[in-house]
Specification:
There is one protein chain. By secondary structure, the protein is an alpha/beta fold. It has two domains: 136 residues, Aspartate Aminotransferase, domain 1; 235 residues, Aspartate Aminotransferase, domain 2. Helix content is 41%, strand content 14%. Helix 3 crosses helix 10 and helix 4 runs parallel beside helix 10. It is globular.
Length: 381
Amino acid sequence: MKPLAENPQRMPRSGIRVILDMAQQYPDALHLEIGQPDFTTPGHIIEAASRALRDGFTGYTPNAGLLSLRQVIAEKVRKRNGLEASAQNVVVTPGAIWGGAAAMMALCDPGDEVLLPDPGWPNYEMMAITLGFVPVNYPLRCEGGFSLDIEAVRSRITPRTKLLVANSPANPTGSVTARAEAESLVSLASECDLYLLSDEVYEDLIFEGEHIGLGNMDAEGRVVSLYSFSKSYAMTGWRVAYTVSSGPVAEAIAKLQEPFVACAPAVSQKAAEAALTGPQDCVAEMRAAYRRRRDLALDILRRKGLYRYTPRGAFYLMVGISASGLDSYTFATRLLETKRVAVAPGRTFGPQGEPFIRISLATADSILREGLERVCDFLKG
């Protein structure tokens, strides 16, 4: 029998999912590994979806998404993100994971190098390898709160580099890109003739400072901005997100939807309309909860002598585990087996993620408190 395709075999599996699967054998496990909001989708969004189903939104939509939603998104990014966009610049995608992959496919050919943050969301590397691109990491170091070092990025650029991926607020670190850093990235992309994929799915979850996107600094059409409804509105299962880019790139992304996914679910698109046009107090309430949980976690780490940095956005925290003498996968596995706490191994986010684990703050205060106490006990034990 002929072998299976090589690229999927080369692709590393997400360590988050590895631990999540292992945790299924422990019904009493405390889950701090998955980036899943513990809130229910707000009621007005659910009601809008129910109404849409009754109104017949149960079939295909255009590849790029419903025009009504794309118009609402264009207005949103003009007002909130400072992007000069119309509906023609917007493509609605079935989740930000596919949106990022489609953007990569629209911009890169097999063999092209893609610069990825390290530590960074592991799906970037998984996408690149599966699609035949060459992932190249640029380091984010804990000493600066996992901030960007533009010269470290520059040193990784070669004639084969085509795309640079940036993420703010960041998964897994919670770091937030400063304006000067964002300007430097866009300038570097112009200087070295690169495209930029700006992952901004956590844009609404900022605890200090402001969210700085890259698209409004781009006068050349190099930036593809990626947004999602999953985190801001607790809509992970609805599978709806969107990209904003120049006309030619948007056209390519929409074209790519047809052979793979056709379009985002129609009912989810109507729910997304309601999310953007309805009350926004739900977003503020969730953001306040995540900030409270971040502060709770930091208080525990300070008390235990394990504080390293303060994340300013998203809902994640990297915890150093070097004192254990274990690599992050071994640490996460033994922690689950002995303390019944599931965490994400830092190595899955890249070499700079070792020796750390990632804690998700998207869980109840009581679970976060107890889980983190057990992590600290295991570290000290």
